[in-house]
Design goal:
This protein is an all-alpha fold and about 425 residues long. It folds into 3 domains: about 200 residues, Hypothetical protein af1432 (Orthogonal Bundle), CATH 1.10.3210.10; about 120 residues, no CATH class; about 90 residues, no CATH class. It is about 55% helix and about 0% strand. The chain is built from 18 helices and 2 strands. The chain has a two-stranded antiparallel sheet with strand order 1-2. Helix 4 packs antiparallel against helix 5 and helix 8 crosses helix 9. It is globular and about 70 Å long.
């Protein structure tokens, strides 16, 4: 049965048409992501705690899988509610799954610490942003066809599904620290909107960044639902969160009846060693907190993806924010995580300086310290800005383990042997 929610406009692909087969365009999007090298690398990239330290922590890969499950479940739940959805008019769960699986592809090693550090390094060269980097991977980096064109030729709906932010770096009055796309991605934004001019009102403040397709909104809430609860679970297992520490933290907060209920549920789960089961049930509550509402905007006549928006119950939004605040204060601001931030800065700044001196500002003695393909891409770039972007792409694509190994091989005189050169 044809799904009338989508049209040929939604399924059009960026960068050239794709050969049709037995799959829908959105199933092809999903499959391309699952089989991409960049997706596999997420198994060795930090979510909260450094990947590889213990086997029970979430990585970017396991987090992405959890987000995709929540996203699909939201689609199914909304469909069971009936109007405005119907058997032949519904939000495609394959498309939402693809958006969820892709949403963290552009994140660098060392998690948010790495993202902040790369933004420092790239601030004069057009900036770095994890969401913009995801868009860059989908449209310009991963895969390569027989003509040498790179990018997976994603559908318009998938591109829009991962496009959490739509404001260009240059459209801010001063260089932003996050929540932007690269200036060269203007053509991607134009494609997403089908060439329709963006109303001036949307360019005010952060309004354009809040203008998201329904699939992007589902992905965003699935992401919030996953990490607001799962970061707490990992924090307890890692020993960052104990009942005593949480109680001390709570004494410094303004705790109302609702917040106290969240705390009591958390204490009970921790003391009974049933944290995963109880918090897993809360994810179900977050899914059932969703409903659809019709809206009108400059794209709503063009596609149903902008005709409807996701509405999440205020109680669920407040609960997610409560646990995100707790995780930030007790985990991300902890000395242990701040030490990781220090390490990320040291490793990335030193590697950047070495690559820059050997491939951009070349002296009389040049050492080829990068894999040949990475070096050729930097050499082929014509401007310093393009060379900086190539260096950024290389560093961003490294996993936690690979970047530490590379750093030690370059800077630790007691590390490495001839066997490491292969």
């Amino acid at each position: 049965m044809e799904n009338r929610f989508y049209s040929a406009f939604d399924a059009e692909s960026f960068g050239g048409s794709r050969k049709p087969d037995y799959r829908s365009p959105f199933q092809t999007d999903r499959d391309c992501i699952i089989h991409a090298h960049a997706f596999r690398k997420l198994q060795s990239k930090t979510q909260v705690f450094l990947s590889g330290e213990y086997d029970f922590y979430r990585t970017r890969l396991t987090h992405s899988i959890e987000v995709s499950q929540i996203g699909r479940s939201i689609c199914h739940y909304l469909r069971t509610r009936g109007e405005p959805l119907k058997p032949d008019f519904f939000i495609d769960s394959d498309l939402v799954e693809a958006s969820c699986l892709a949403h963290d592809l552009g994140h660098p090693p060392f998690g948010h610490s790495g993202e902040r550090t790369l933004q420092e390094l790239m601030i004069k060269w057009g900036g770095f942003e994890g969401n913009a980097q995801t868009l860059h991977l989908l449209t310009a980096t991963i895969f390569q066809n027989e003509s040498g064109v790179r990018g997976m030729r994603p559908t318009r709906a998938l591109l829009d599904g991962v496009l959490k932010y739509k404001k260009l770096f240059k459209e801010y009055p001063k260089a932003p620290s996050n929540h932007f796309i690269y200036d060269r991605q203007l053509k991607c934004r134009d494609f997403v909107f089908g060439g329709t001019a963006i109303p001036k009102a949307l360019h005010q403040g952060e309004v354009l960044n809040e203008f998201k397709s329904i699939e992007c909104q589902i992905m965003d809430w699935a992401d919030d639902a996953a990490y607001s609860l799962n970061d707490i679970v990992d924090g307890v297992k890692a020993g960052f969160l104990t009942v005593d520490r949480i109680e001390d933290w709570a004494h410094e907060q303004t705790i109302g009846v609702e917040e106290q209920q969240h705390l009591d549920r958390l204490y009970q789960a921790m003391r009974s060693d049933r944290l995963e089961g109880i918090f897993g049930a809360r994810i179900g509550g977050f899914i059932q907190a969703c409903r659809l509402r019709e809206r009108e905007n400059f794209m709503s006549a063009q596609t149903n993806r902008y005709r409807y928006e996701l509405v999440v119950a205020p109680t669920a939004l407040r609960e997610a924010m409560f646990f995100k605040t707790m995780a930030n204060d007790l985990i991300f601001e902890s000395p242990q995580l701040q030490q990781m931030e220090h390490k990320a800065r040291r490793v990335l700044f030193d590697l950047w300086a070495s690559i820059w001196s050997n491939y951009v500002d070349k002296g009389t003695r040049v050492i080829n310290i990068l894999p040949p393909q990475a070096g050729r891409l930097i050499d082929a770039a014509r401007t310093k800005q393009d060379k900086a972007r190539q260096i950024c792409d290389y560093l961003c694509g490294l996993t936690d383990g690979t970047i530490v190994h590379t750093y030690r091989r370059l800077f630790d005189p007691e590390f490495g042997s001839i066997r490491d050169l292969s």
